Amino acid sequence: MTFKKIDENTIRCVLTESDMEENDIGLADFFSSNRDKIHDFLENIMERAREEIGYENDGNMLSMQLMPLPNNGLAITITGSRNREFDDVLGNMQNMLKELASPARQADGSVDNTEAQIQDDDTGAVREVVPPTCRIFGFDSLDSVVCYCNAVRGYAKNMKTSLYKSNDGTYYLEISKGRGAKQKFLSACLEANEYAREVECGALFVNNMREHYDCIMAKKVIENTKYL
After folding, report:
1. How many CA atoms lie within 13 A of 183 on its CB side?
2. Nearest Cα residue to 12 out of 40, 52, 39
3. Is 47 exposed, middle or buried (0-12, 13-18, 19+ CB in 10 A)?
4. Strand 73-80 and strand 126-129: pairing?
5. How open is the CA angle 87-124-13, to the nearest 5 degrees?
6. H/E element holding 172?
7. How far apart, in whole angstroms, are the C-alpha atoms of residue 176 and residue 104?
8. PANTHER family per the record (predicted)?
9. For residue 110, what are the domain limits?
10. pTM for this model (two decimals)
11. Which of 129, 147, 176 is the last residue before a domain boundary?
């Protein structure tokens, strides 16, 4: 179990398969009605984060993002705030996981079959959980974009990427899995969090970005930034 402090309010915890087994936790548990187990698990994470990286918050959470990793690992990003209670956060997270349980469709309408299976404890049904195949990250500078692309260029060449710049100077990198392997796409997204903040990839934001922001590079951003 490793921790990284993203900013004053946000941390990321990366768990390997052995970490998950040691804590007796899995994706299926986040579907479970046993909120006490999840609550205890997250309290353990917060305590470990306090000990290892000095992270302090008021005990409540604004948001929690889960990203399945290769080899049955899991990345959990937690943002602290006084404004939201644990039950609200867990409820929203369960809704997100249920949405992921539906096969994701690419822009051409095809189904992405890179899935994992988890069991819904409420119904006993086995759900197919499909990680999102499109992510957007906001970078504070072009230099940060270049540094990120340099870090992932060795394995992320088959992904579809576009780069936009907003009026406030933020650079938005859109990453789609494309022909790349699922594990490499997840690794590239995890690496992006080291240089940028993830933006909710909703249709409203995406359409606004594509229509109103300056398109710096329409494709092959990771490949072409080596010439900047």
Report:
1. 5
2. 52
3. exposed
4. unpaired
5. 45
6. strand 171-176
7. 12
8. ADAPTER PROTEIN MECA, ADAPTER PROTEIN MECA 1
9. 2-129
10. 0.53
11. 129
